[in-house]
Amino acid sequence: MPSENDGVMIVLSSPSGAGKTTLVKMLSKSDNYEISISHTTRKPRPNEINNQDYYFVNENEFKRLINNQEFLEYAKVFNNFYGTTRTPVIDKLNKGKNVLFDIDWQGTKKLSKFKELKLIKIFILPPSKKELEKRLTQRNEDKKEAVTKRLQSYENDIIHWQDYDYIIINENLDNCFRQIENIIKTNTKPVKIN
Ligand code: 5GP
């Protein structure tokens, strides 16, 4: 049963390349915020660390987790599976931690169905598609065809902004970060001091 002192779930979604992963990492540096580490069947990028950025697993393992009903939500994104396991999230919330999710609109829709969970949904947009293309190309982490695929899904991704509580344009990373911090502060109760 959720209680008054449980943490809050903060979801950040965006079209790929809008800066959400960086923002989630910046937020996680504050006390009382923990990132939900997802499982994925995607191959790690050169700078990514297993068990830290993701739990990188193969499709068989992912299917085993689905069959064991271990996922709070999961989705197929760009031909790979991504999912959030239930137990670590519930444990963190029960300890009063706020949990940050870097997940897509499909996962957000699924989490929204758990009415008993406190959820703040934030959608981050790049200033323009042109700027997004620049960032995805500069990021230089994905092969050219992966960048093209991500750009192609941009229009389909942004129509889901309506499912979110807040929309922020990431023109400047620090401003965007401060806006998110303010949203979280106004939606979470102050820590009680006895
Ligand atoms: P990337 O491959 O760039 O790390 O992530 C691709 C997309 O998958 C991003 O939009 C990211 O937010 C989303 N994603 C990452 N983890 C999860 C997850 O556990 N569930 C869902 N539904 N989406 C995820």
Q: What can you tell me about this protein's structure?
A:
It is built from eight helices and nine strands. The protein is of the alpha/beta class and 194 residues long. The longest helix is centred in the C-terminal third of the chain and has 15 residues, at 173-187. The structure holds guanosine-5'-monophosphate (5GP). Guanosine-5'-monophosphate (5GP) binds at residues 16, 38, 42, 73, 75, 77, 82-84, 102-104, 106-107.
Estimate the helix proportion, in percent. Answer: 25-40%
> DSSP strand (E) fraction?
15-25%
Mean pLDDT figure: 89
Specify the number of helices.
8
Strand order of the largest sheet: 2-7-1-8-9
Rounded to an integer in angstroms, the radius of gyration calculated over CA atoms is: 17 Å
- Sketch the major β-sheet: 5 strands, parallel
Please tally the β strands and state the result.
9
Shape, principal axes of CA atoms = globular
Report the order of strands and helices: EHEEEHEEHEHEHHHEH
The set of bound ligands, ions and cofactors reads: guanosine-5'-monophosphate
Structural class: alpha/beta
State the distance separating the first and last CA atoms: 24 Å
Low-pLDDT segments, ≥5 res: none
